[in-house]
Amino acid sequence: MRSSLLTLLAASALAQSNDPALLSDAARQYALVRQYEEAERLWNRALEIAPAYFPALFNMGFMYYTRGQLDKAEPLLDRAAKASPLDFNARYTLGAALVKLDRRDDALRHWREALKIDPGHVRLMQIMVVEYSKGRYFQEAAALAKRALGLRPADPNSYFLAIKAYQDSGDSASALEIARQAAQKFPQSARASFEYGFHLQKLGRVEEAITHLKRAMAADPKYEEPPFFLGDLLVRQGRHEEAIPFLRAAIQNRADYVPARVALARALMGWEKWKEAIAELEETIRMDPSHPQPHLLLSQIYFRLGDEERAAREKTVSLRLRRENPTVLEAVQGRPFPETK
Amino acid sequence: MGALGVAAALVWAQGVATRNAPPVARPAPSGRPWPVSFVDIAKSAGLDMRFASGSEVSKKYIIEANGSGVAFLDYDNDGLQDLFLVNGSRLEGYPEGQAPANHLYRNLGDGRFRDVTREAGLARTGWGNGVCIGDIDNDGNEDLYVTYWGPNALYRNTGKGQFTDITDAAGVAGPPAEWSSGCTFIDYDRDGYLDLFVTSYQGFDLAKAPLPGKASNCEWKGMPVFCGPRGLPFGTATLYRNRGDGTFEDVSKQAGIRSVEGYYAFTAVAADLNQDGWTDLYVACDSTPSLFFRNNRNGTFTEIATETGIAFNEHGFEQGGMGIAVGDYDNDGRLDLLKTNFTGDYPNLYRGLGGGIFEDAVLKAGLAINPQYVGWGAGFADLDNDGWKDIVQVNGHVYPELDQSKGQEKYRNPRLVYRNLGNGKFEDVSALSGPGVGERRSSRGAAFGDFDNDGRVDVLVMNMGEEPALLHHQGHGANHWIKVKLRGTRSNRSAIGALVTVESGGRKQVDAVLGQSSYVSQNDSRLHFGLGQAARVERIVVRWPNGAVEEFPGVAADRLVLLEEGSGAK
């Protein structure tokens, strides 16, 4: 409390000045103690005196950015980047603001400039990988992920990011190879074993996939994805009975794991356990009434059981939910990027 | 005087939606001999027409992307398969007299064909799409229906080498601005006359269609391309009942066809998919669920593709469905379906389980190995005559702009040939199947037939912006074969919807007489069966489209047999 008071006293003294540097510094101190209106007033005064004064432009822009006032932040950060073209932070923050304004391509343009300024900035690279992929610039994402991996090879997340980027780019061979390297380099990592198993199953290398997915389960029994993908793989191979305990394990780890519940129902259907499959699907619907897939499978079960009226009703619901939520079905094999720290 | 510092941790948890299906690992080759070699003889055979379908450099609208179908038919009843090729157009039009037209080529019997389009009265221009063939008046001559962006055309075969456009009199032109795609003849009410089912791809309006790159549905991997189909108005389907007097009536509404909405429909096939003796309809749909109209035996249909497992892939994803092959690949007596799809996805191999229920066996069958192509025309055909139906698929991307990009995807692609190993699995033998298979084209329609009657199935292919390919099967295997031609007397004369079972060498094979299949194309209507080492067929059983079952006695192999309804044993 005492230091804040001293800061404000000093800032108050500086605020009487006509020197943009002193004004900007005073504004910054007001911002640090959350007196934003005073900070804004002083930065504006500084910019009246020196319109291209970088610290005032950047810090006021950054204040707006952190407060979520993106429309105000963006022009100031843009002016800051022009005033000091070689400043990394201005480009970086401007890019972040632009992404939040749904201007991904503009953001990537500024981030590319930022990377020229600091070519070893791995975190920016990782963020760019994610945004390149969201913008469907898959080749660019993969190339950058590879570069980040080269700069930070001891970080498992670098591998996971590169695996995902290569997968999205359609280069499944590279994704598999990086996953193999990760599994080898981090043998205790459940995620690394899982990534390798996941890519092996996508490529139809069934028995190898099973080995690595089981290894991931052993490394972290609470991790829900390995048993789900193992069970799902077995269902696709027609090994329904074998799949059931793995899918139940996935559900035990995460009760609201809808794809696992759907796969379990498919396994039960393959085994002609109609009543159990219906019960599983109805439970799934109670948990997530917006998911179309349980209704789709129910329509197939009721049709096979000869209840065409009920089958048609479930189909209608499934098709309606699919239209209302078109992305919900895309998530099973398209997995999220690891979080960038 | 430093800055406050960089932004606090920016964490974006992503859920990137992608199908991006990778090619599944290939098993080791079987090493079995493969006596199949396709050579493209189109040029020497005299097939000198050129297909048009908008720009081949950059396509502005989706109307330019889908190409057209091709057909085998015997229009002059000389026992030789002739060829019909549907042609398109371009947005800027053509100078007077230079617009491309459809083409009819007469088979001269010596490996050459003669263009008889004008004398046959078939030289219509415009944006043609699909073709289907059937004898609508049971006079013994194959009639022709062609779909267009614009009014469709029904041509009656006079039996004198000419066709008469009877579209308006028959009442089957469809709405003048509709973009029709698929069509098939079907005798859905078993009255002995072929009815007509027509699909429409979408409600396309050039004046309202957005330009490339103008919306999220107008990009491909960051590249601006033509828009759609998503985001553009859906298509529809129409069922015309043949009154038997040369006219048809639109019964779409009362038959239940119009009760289904929201799809982009392509190829239509008519076959008895639930083995109840009544011909059903299956439609490959692009980016929307595919459709299975079950014939309710009372003049109506119920759409049951979702319930029976053939609307989506095994995970419930909508797919970019294009073409359909129908056949019994595992010789279990039930028809199976192969549906080709867009790139980044596998085809569907819907294995019939009985009662109209199917499972997608594409992974188990080893067909998930070439998702890099946009698949179009496809067919089951026993290429080595070993008694197991193999697969041929033609491919071609929809964006010619890809040829200018650095990526691996290209507009022109090779064809694919899969050998049926007889154990529920296939292997890719494209590289062993001759130079005609390795040719890179952007293909669409494909029709399967034996134009030289040598017991080996040939393939006619539509290539975007280029001449057609006639893939002549020049392999030399020792296996036997038989061809079966049906002639309905109480059923429709073309016998579309009939199911034929051939028994030989302790094996039963089933095949269906189809209208349209592959991609908006029409195959040789004579059914081809490979017999392996068996030099004789023990028995042939026909279930006619009207439900009657007849048995025909055994015959020696390596010939065409004509089976007329009513001449066999009941």
Strand neighbour order, sheet with most strands of chain B: 1-30-29-28
Greatest chain-chain contact = A-B, 67 and 50 residues
Task: Determine Rg of chain B (CA atoms, Å).
Answer: 23 Å
Q: Beta-strand percentage of chain A?
A: under 5%
Q: Using only CA atoms, what is the Rg of chain A?
A: 27 Å
Number of strands of chain B: 39
Would you give an account of this structure?
The complex is a heterodimer of chains A (341) and B (570). Chain A has 341 residues and is an all-alpha fold. Chain A has helices spanning 2-14, 20-32, 36-49, 54-66, 70-83, 88-100, 104-117, 122-134, 138-151, 156-168, 172-185, 190-202, 206-219, 225-236, 240-253, 258-270, 274-287, 292-304, 308-324. Chain A is elongated and about 85 Å long. Chain A starts with a helix and ends in a 17-residue tail after the last helix. The radius of gyration of chain B is 23 Å and the shape is globular. The model of chain B is unreliable at 1-18 (pLDDT under 50). The interface between A and B is large, with 67 and 50 residues.
Summarize the structure.
The complex is a heterodimer of chains A (341) and B (570). Chain A has 341 residues and is mostly helical. In chain A, 76% of the residues lie in helices and 0% in strands.
Topology overview:
The complex is a heterodimer of chains A (341) and B (570).
Chain A: H1 2-14, H2 20-32, H3 36-49, H4 54-66, H5 70-83, H6 88-100, H7 104-117, H8 122-134, H9 138-151, H10 156-168, H11 172-185, H12 190-202, H13 206-219, H14 225-236, H15 240-253, H16 258-270, H17 274-287, H18 292-304, H19 308-324
Helix pairs in contact in A: 1-2, 2-3, 2-4, 3-4, 4-5, 5-6, 6-7, 7-8, 8-9, 8-10, 9-10, 10-11, 11-12, 12-13, 12-14, 13-14, 14-15, 14-16, 15-16, 16-17, 16-18, 17-18, 18-19
Chain B: E1 38-40, H1 42-45, E2 70-73, E3 82-85, E4 103-107, E5 113-115, H2 117-120, E6 128-134, E7 143-148, E8 153-157, E9 163-165, H3 167-170, E10 179-186, E11 195-202, E12 219-220, E13 223-224, E14 237-242, E15 248-250, E16 265-271, E17 280-285, E18 291-295, E19 301-303, H4 305-308, E20 324-327, E21 336-339, E22 348-354, E23 357-360, E24 375-381, E25 390-395, E26 416-420, E27 426-428, H5 435-438, E28 443-449, E29 458-463, E30 469-473, E31 480-487, E32 499-504, E33 507-512, E34 516-517, E35 521-522, E36 527-532, E37 536-543, E38 549-556, E39 559-564
Parallel strand pairs in B: 31-39
Antiparallel strand pairs in B: 1-30, 2-3, 3-4, 4-5, 6-7, 7-8, 8-9, 10-11, 11-14, 12-13, 14-15, 16-17, 17-18, 18-19, 20-21, 21-22, 22-23, 24-25, 25-26, 26-27, 28-29, 29-30, 31-36, 32-33, 32-37, 34-35, 37-38
